[in-house]
Inverse folding.
């Protein structure tokens, strides 16, 4: 038997387990933590950056962002997307940055941000 073939299927099995665990987490096993989400529009900051921010109303424990596909947006020009939690000594603020090349004034990029906030 070719063991390399069996090995190829292991990651998919792991992913399925991980998805089940995450769905349990999202469905309410958070204790006093809270999950929220928001759409944020990133706007032109420079030829290499689009930026935006959001406030969460509570201290942020963790966050992630993903780009929302829309026609006529500079998605292909984005090299990386990252977030900055709690800048300027403001633990409830998240800055979102898209870095790339060729951005011009008027470019807008929508991102979905998922946030886990700490109890008050």
């Amino acid at each position: 038997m070719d063991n390399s073939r069996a090995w190829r299927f292991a990651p998919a099995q792991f992913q399925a387990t991980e998805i089940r665990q995450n769905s349990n987490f999202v469905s309410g096993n958070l204790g006093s933590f809270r999950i929220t989400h928001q759409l944020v529009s990133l706007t032109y900051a420079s030829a290499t950056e689009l930026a935006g921010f959001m406030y969460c109303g509570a201290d942020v424990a963790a966050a992630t962002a993903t780009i929302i596909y829309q026609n006529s947006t500079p998605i292909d020009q984005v090299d990386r997307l990252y977030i900055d939690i709690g800048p300027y000594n403001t633990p409830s603020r998240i800055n979102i940055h898209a870095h790339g090349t060729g951005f011009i004034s008027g470019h807008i990029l929508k991102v979905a941000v998922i946030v886990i906030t700490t109890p008050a």
The beta strands are 34-46, 49-55, 60-67, 78-85, 93-100, 108-117. Residues 1-29 have pLDDT under 50 and may be disordered.
